[in-house]
Amino acid sequence: MREKGIIDERVLDAMNSVPRHLFLDSSFLEHAYMDKAFPIGADQTISHPYTVAVQSALLQVQAGDKVLEIGTGSGYQCAVLLEMKAQVYTIERQNLLYKKTTQLFRKLHYRPRKFVFGDGYLGLPDDAPFDSIIVTCGAPDVPQSLLSQLKIGGRLVIPVGDESQEMTLIIREEAARFSQQSFGEFRFVPFLVGKK
Questions:
Q1: Catalytic residue among 17, 26, 47, 148
Q2: Is the pTM for the entire model greater than 0.90?
């Protein structure tokens, strides 16, 4: 990760603390620490470690920050954020992954503040506002519902696009004013409405 330009020591330390091989199917164990994505079931993937590092660094998480994660998947990104001492609220739309990851969190003693089987497009309005929001799937556009759940000064990291996505950082500067920056092209599974 350092060779690829990741300099946030808190992100690097957190990633070094998370046993990525436990978030993968056993058939991929020998490749667990390569910078590759792997299938995790339900047509979903665990992201490249570099992608996790980039998104985590862009969030600029501080200990105690309230972070909403859209797309729990295997739970790996959530675990990294928990190692960074964030209070993580996470949503997964695939029931298969929700059940599997719930068991893994228990086994590894990772405790998100809230883990929900639900529709990520809705976010968690009852728990808002959030210091930051991370979306781990490719969105065709930025859901207004998520923007509205950011606190003033809050950061939304979301890959935006169809075939490939532009990693996008949106900061809520004021109640109705947002700034936006792009950080290169990535590929994610699509951000879908509803739960399954």
A1: 47
A2: yes
* Cα 111 → chain centroid: 15
Phi/psi of residue 48, nearest 5 degrees? -55, 140
Any catalytic annotation for residue 47? yes
Q: What is the pLDDT of residues 69-89, one digit of tens each?
A: 999 999 999 999 999 999 999
Q: What's the CA gap between 74 and 177, in Å, rounded?
A: 34
Residue 132 belongs to what domain range? 9-186
Q: Is residue 37 part of a domain?
A: yes
CATH number for position 84: 3.40.50.150
As a whole number, the mean pLDDT across the chain is: 92
What is d(CA 70, CA 112) in angstroms, rounded to the nearest whole number?
A: 13
